[in-house]
Each structure stands twice: as structure tokens, then as C-alpha cells.
Amino acid sequence: MARKYLIEGGVRLHGEITIRGAKNAVTKEMVAAMLAPGVSTLRNVPDIGDVDITRRVLESIGCRAVHDAAAGTLTIDASNLNGPEVPAEYSGLNRIPILMAGALIHRFGKAVIPMMGGCDIGARPVDFHLQGFERLGATVEYRDGAYHFSADRLVGTRITLPFPSVGATENLMMAAVLARGTTEIRNAAVEPEIVDLALLLQSMGAIISQETDRTWIIQGVDALTPFDHRVLNDRIEAASFAAAAIATRGDVLIRGADQLHLLTFLNWLRRAGGEFAIQADGIRFRGKDSHLKSVAAETGVHPGLMTDWQQPLVILLTQASGMSVIHETVYENRFGYTEALGRMGANIQLFSECLGGSDCRFRHLGHKHSAVILGPTPLHGAEIEIPDLRAGFSYMVAAALAKGRTTLSGVRYIERGYDRIVEKFGALGLPIQVVEE
Ligand code: EPZ
After folding, report:
1. Pair (245, 192) in one structural domain
2. CA torsion angle for 391, 392, 393, 394 (degrees, to 10)?
């Protein structure tokens, strides 16, 4: 049954919410449980669709997983895995199965992983993952819709990633912890979610260090033990609600918003005229006192402006005076969602040139990866089909800003990644009518 959200806009968000564990950490940490027989526990687990999908994938290969959504705990018993193959029915649901390759190789000497899914925001190949496994001594073949990996034991090596990919870094890190010898992953991703994964792996008995130049050094060990770990808070959820508070000229305290992990976002928010105050228990975002003005920014890997902060920022900039420019350098196709914002009254034009920053790897390839936003523009309600998770959230903010009713369909994308979204917007004074059709 398809769900829709009906939203009556023209609301200033007001009140407080609490951030939960990061979607882009928790699902990888669920996979890490497979590295040690026994029962591992995750805390601060968000109540989101991606946790549920990943739980089902883990259960399909023999783990027993129990999620107490109210308490935010998840236990995973990985004592008995039933084989090296992730069933084909889990292809296309999210990006997690490929991250199971290392653990399955360690336990069975092979892994069979179906094709990947996830949001449609670019080609999203997995070549860095596959090349990394080959460097670690695995044989990798693609046949019948699945990747087939095999190796008696992975062997430490030096890997230089062509781009600091989050998923490839996590995958190779989880493969290297039980490899024979030492692995260096150079030009690696260093996002806070990856550091959180490294901390979890260290608690299991891994030996991992981080150099200052995007290099992870992992000294393989023979065995790991289960963990009990609290997932770090979601900095995308925090920034998304922050942008919503400012754009609607509201006043919202975001408990659990972590200044350290929002450092770059907060700088851009301040440059755009957004007002906020750091408090002991979170950050208060004061849209009422904000005088929004245009900025020129580009997304990039950590510690740059996250690509997942781009969409909330764009919505906010539709309410800023002047011409803003955003250059997307992580994904080649991450502005598709702006077409619907145009139907709501936003003035956004896309360009294939690298605007507002340095040339990126998409230069001359014809992808519309720069956006020019002219503001401020009043928005009005519309009927919108959500194309991906982060776009979905920005449509919710646009709906809150808009005059009249907005109908959002395809809300499963939002529910995959945002904890109790209807409840949280409701607590901030934006009632959302959920319709099942
Ligand atoms: C993770 O995706 C996140 N997903 C994304 O969040 C996030 O936008 C992205 O990292 C960047 O921060 C999860 O954590 C589940 P990448 P991931 O590998 O790991 C290219 C969300 O909405 N690349 O860092 O898949 C790739 O095409 C999602 O929460 C290759 O070319 O991203 C992209 O252009 C969306 N070959 C760039 O690298 C590879 O083998 C970065 O991708 C791997 C990646």
C-alpha cells in the first residue's frame, strides 16, 4: 500500500526535537556484527526503514536480530551464519549488501553479493570496492546478477582509492581487520561515521589508526569479539531540521546536534545569515532573527560541505536575498529534485559547468551539477513524487514554507532514512496527514 503525506504549509517551525543515531553509521555497524560470532549490541538506533532492510538482509544469512525501536537498541547474534550468499531478493534495496563481502570471506572463504541499490543520484559504481578486494588477494567475478568473491584468507596490502569513497573505505576497513598483515588505505574517506565505525572495530579487538593525510592503517588480527556500541548522532538529520527551522523563520532547539560534526555546515549557515546558539544539550536555530543572504558554495568530502546537506541548504537559499550558487562535486546527478521545487515557485537553474568553486571530476562531462538559485521566492503547494531520500526531506521543508497544500508521494524514501519524521515535524507545529492508498 502506498503512503502519501498531505501538508498544509505556511508554518513557522517551533519547539524542540532530539536527534537519533546516524543512518549512515548504523547500517554499516550492523554489518560489522558479522565479523564476530556472538551477540553484539547497538544503542541509539534510529527507527528508520534502512535499519529494517539491513536487519532483514542479516537475518537472510542466518543472524538473529532484535530491534527494540522504543528503546533504540538492536542486538545481533552472528553466531551461526548459514552461508556466503546474500539472497538476490535483497538486490536493489539499499547499498549495504556489498559491505558484507569481507565478513563473509572471513567466515566462508567466499561471498556472493547481488547488485546494489540505493537512491538514484548518479551512476554509483562499486569498482573501488572490487579493485580493493582484488588488492587484498580476493578473486572477484560478476555473473548472473551478483558479485562472486573468493579468497582463503585476505592479505594486507596498500590500497590507494581514486576518490575518497565512503562505502569503499568502510568495506575495505571491515575486510582488513581480519586480514593477514597490515593494510594501508590511502586517499580514504574520513567522515565522522567512518571514525565511529573504526571506534567500534577497535572495541572488538581491531588495531586501526588514522594518519593525518586521509590514510587508515589496519593491522590485521586473527579474531574479533562482539561489541556494545552507541551509534553517533545523525549530523544530516540535525542539519536538515536546522535548515527547516531557519527557512521557515522558526525557532527550534535540536537536542543532540553535535557542533563538532556540524562545524562546516554551521559556517555556511552563518555565511548565509542563519542565526544559531550553541547550548549544552544541543543547538538552537533562530530563523526569526535570521536575515538570509546568498552564498556560493561547493559540496565535497569531509571536512567539506556534505553532499547530503546540499538539499536542505538549497531550500533555505530559495528564501535568501540574491543569487546563490551551489556546485555539487560528489555526485554527478544530485539536482534532479529541483525541478519540482521550480513547480512550487523556486527559481533554480542548473548548469553543467563547474560554478562557484574549483573544477571537479565532472567538468566537461555534461552533467548538470551546478545550481543557481535566485531568491527570495514565495513557494506554493504542489503534488510531488519523491525521487530520493534527501530530496524528500527538502520537499517537506518546501511544503512547510508553501502557501496551500502539498501532496508528497513516494514517502518510503524519506522513511528509509529519517527517524519518526511525521512525529518530529508534528512536534514542531507542522501537522502531516498520512494517507494510505
Ligand atoms: C555514502 O554513499 C552515503 N550512503 C551517501 O548518503 C552519501 O551521500 C555518500 O556516502 C557521500 O558522503 C551511505 O552511507 C549508505 P561514496 P556511498 O562511495 O558510500 C563514486 C544518503 O542519502 N564511487 O562516497 O555510496 C560515487 O559514484 C546517501 O544518505 C565510484 O566511482 O558514496 C560517487 O560519485 C546518498 N566508485 C562518489 O564516489 C566506487 O566504487 C562518492 O561515493 C565507489 C564510489
Report:
1. no
2. 50
